[in-house]
Specification:
Blueprint: H1 11-52, H2 56-80, H3 87-100, H4 103-161
């Protein structure tokens, strides 16, 4: 083997480091290619579809499937199967299939649409409730922020305008030198 005499115990560690750096490089390549195939290309094609009114449904189906895939990827896939040897290659092939081979339309029409239709009223109710709660919390936070600002405005301004520790004191402007009367 290629290890120096007396350091044979390093060989497994070096192999692991090589394997990890190889995985990192593949991850970076996947990330770049996935961004191009999964987002930039479909974004440009969506622009063309909107401009020409052609393929608009296809690209709307794509974005619906891609959004669901992205959430699934972040919440489940990356945590469960990221250590598989061909993980990045499989993900890249899947994204390419979605964007270029009408894979997104197939999944949308055969899986996503059916599930959304079946659960649409539940999803609508959840979104309405969540929206109301978010608006209530945002209104409360705004009121608390305004109250805090009113209560502490003077001390906040003083703290922000105080000289920094260790900074040289600044001299007051000389009004006589500028020709201004006091």
């Amino acid at each position: 083997s290629g290890a120096a005499p007396g350091v044979f115990w390093l060989e497994p560690s070096l192999a692991r480091v090589r394997s990890q750096s190889h995985t990192m490089v593949l991850g970076l390549v996947y990330t770049i290619m996935s961004a191009v195939l999964g987002a930039l290309y479909p974004a440009f094609m969506s622009f063309k579809a909107i401009k020409s009114s052609k393929d608009t449904r296809k690209w709307l189906e794509y974005w619906a499937v891609y959004a669901l895939y992205t959430v699934l990827e972040w919440s489940v896939l990356d945590n469960l199967v990221a250590s598989l040897p061909a993980y990045y290659l499989i993900k890249l092939a899947f994204v390419a299939w979605l964007a270029t081979k009408d894979g997104a339309s197939y999944l949308y029409q055969n899986v996503v649409e059916k599930q959304l239709v079946q659960h649409e009223s539940h999803i609508d109710a959840f979104l309405e409730k969540a929206s109301k709660e978010i608006m209530t919390k945002a209104t409360d936070a705004k009121a608390q922020g305004l109250e805090f600002a009113k209560k502490h405005a003077g001390s906040l301004v003083a703290a922000l305008s105080a000289p920094k520790p260790g900074a040289a004191p600044t001299a007051a402007p000389d009004n006589k030198a500028s020709g201004k009367a006091e």
